[in-house]
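Hey, quick one: can you model this chain's 3D structure?
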Amino acid sequence: MSTIDHLAAARDQLLTLLAERSAKRGDFVLASGRRSDLYVDCRLTTMSPEGQRLLGVLGLAALREAGWDADAVGGLTLGADPIAYAIAHASAFAAERQEGPLVRAFTVRKQPKQHGTGKRVEGPFQAGDRVVVVEDVITTGGSALTAVEAIRAEGGEVLGVLAVVDRQEGGREALEATGLAVRSLATAAELVARLGG
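Sure thing. Here's the predicted structure for all 197 residues.
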């Protein structure tokens, strides 16, 4: 199986997992405060063994396809954490096969730590790192922007934003309006199609 076929099969598997485990129809109030008939709890996929494997492979491939030569990936805890860890893990396997450099993972606290170093960005992040902000679901883009601000405040260079799911509700456009490039592994429309419309 070619690399392209392998990635296409992995993406199909990820869409299936997201539709079966993470997407729900009903009447929901989102973190943004908006109401929606679609709720996506990516953690039910991103924290599963199968989801971790798929996100690592697809996330790392998306970084490389975008031309993002990232030193590290991370975003606002808690949604971004398993995505960042999966990509870092996949980069270790790729590096063993001499298929690219290691990519470190980090997490951004919602508030600065009140003790110790008082850091907001945790993990092996370093000032000067080129980073990609990862996000489970983009709705308004607010969480990603919060992470971007924290990373820049600590000396990181943000290359772009990678989301698992783009809800297609203006978040991508809001991020792009600030000059950020945005990629997603899946869209709300694709999940709705798998839920039967």
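One thing worth noting: The helical segments are 3-22, 43-46, 49-66, 81-96, 142-153, 171-176, 188-194.
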